[in-house]
């Protein structure tokens, strides 16, 4: 997938020269995490035997709120079904997220209150707690943690992944397509496959640590100065991949102001309510 980078190179790729932490503790697991990059070009090679069981075991090893295990995963491998998932996640112009069809699998991570709901109702009890926003948050966090454990496991065996939040563009239609029960929805997808030989996946720099992480109290930093500094690393990353020039600030502002960016996700709350979630 990528040339072997050493510790300093990985930290530098993540933060740029100027803002990188001097040193961090190091082992193979931390190295794997710092080596993360989303992959968007996949080979046709089949996934290895036992990939499913391995990724599910990793996902189920994540912590889960009160051990309630309120998530599920649907691995869509059938090409015709994958094409439909892609269509529902392809955006306005129908061009986005083509890798859903290119890679052999997309894993759909589901926040799932349905099992616990049914187990409660079937004994004549009322699952009133499920009507509260916190239940929705619990199930969504559970699904996210499970998906990230699967991502880390997949990357550790050399597979490439990319999350697909665009699976929420048409959340209602996607839930119907994969026959989700009430009280569940797809939080996000995760495309999994072998990176193409010519994959240009690269480590994408992040904000300086002091912007996002604090000691004891949240302390607002000089955001402008830090973002200006980050723009240098961000620019170098985009330039390196031949991407059109755009600042991170422009990306942030576009995502904050453009309803076109939401691409249907404006309807998510209504869909969730229809599917039985409550937001008390
Ligand atoms: C919840 C979530 C949803 C995402 N949705 C998409 C998506 O729909 N399409 C896509 O190409 N990338 C998607 N991404 C990938 C992000 O763009 C990517 O993680 C980010 O740009 C940082 O790059 P990196 O993962 O290579 O470090 C998503 C990531 C997350 C965590």
UniProtKB/TrEMBL annotation:
<keyword id="KW-0288">FMN</keyword>
<keyword id="KW-0285">Flavoprotein</keyword>
<dbReference type="InterPro" id="IPR029479">
    <property type="entry name" value="Nitroreductase"/>
</dbReference>
<dbReference type="InterPro" id="IPR016446">
    <property type="entry name" value="Flavin_OxRdtase_Frp"/>
</dbReference>
<keyword id="KW-0521">NADP</keyword>
<dbReference type="InterPro" id="IPR000415">
    <property type="entry name" value="Nitroreductase-like"/>
</dbReference>
<protein>
    <submittedName>
        <fullName>NADPH-dependent oxidoreductase</fullName>
    </submittedName>
</protein>
<feature type="domain" description="Nitroreductase">
    <location>
        <begin position="35"/>
        <end position="194"/>
    </location>
</feature>
<dbReference type="Pfam" id="PF00881">
    <property type="entry name" value="Nitroreductase"/>
</dbReference>
<comment type="similarity">
    <text>Belongs to the flavin oxidoreductase frp family.</text>
</comment>
<keyword id="KW-0560">Oxidoreductase</keyword>
<dbReference type="GO" id="GO:0016491">
    <property type="term" value="F:oxidoreductase activity"/>
</dbReference>
């Amino acid at each position: 997938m990528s040339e072997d980078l050493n510790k300093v190179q990985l930290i530098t790729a993540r933060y740029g020269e100027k803002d990188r932490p001097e040193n961090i503790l190091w082992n193979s697991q931390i190295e794997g995490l710092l080596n993360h990059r989303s992959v968007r070009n996949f080979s046709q090679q089949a996934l290895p035997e036992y990939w499913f069981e391995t990724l599910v075991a990793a996902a189920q090893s994540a912590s889960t709120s009160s051990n309630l295990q309120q998530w599920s995963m649907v691995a869509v491998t059938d090409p015709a079904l994958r094409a439909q998932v892609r269509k529902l996640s392809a955006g306005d112009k129908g061009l986005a997220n083509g890798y859903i069809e290119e890679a052999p699998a997309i894993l759909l991570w589901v926040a799932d209150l349905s099992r616990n709901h049914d187990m409660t109702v079937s004994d004549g009890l009322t699952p009133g707690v499920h009507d509260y926003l916190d239940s929705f948050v619990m199930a969504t966090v559970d699904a996210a943690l499970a998906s990230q454990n699967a991502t880390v496991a997949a990357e550790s065996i050399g597979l490439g992944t990319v999350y697909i939040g665009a699976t929420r563009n048409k959340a209602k239609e996607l839930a119907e397509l994969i026959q989700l029960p009430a009280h569940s929805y797809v939080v996000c997808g995760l495309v999994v496959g072998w990176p193409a030989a010519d994959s240009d996946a690269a480590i994408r720099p992040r904000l300086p640590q002091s912007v996002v992480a604090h000691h004891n109290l949240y302390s607002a930093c000089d955001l402008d100065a830090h973002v200006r500094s980050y723009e240098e690393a961000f620019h170098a990353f985009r330039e390196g991949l031949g991407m059109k020039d755009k600042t991170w600030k422009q990306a942030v502002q576009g995502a904050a102001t453009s309803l076109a960016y939401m691409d249907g996700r404006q309807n998510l709350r209504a869909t969730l309510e229809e599917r039985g979630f409550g937001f008390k």
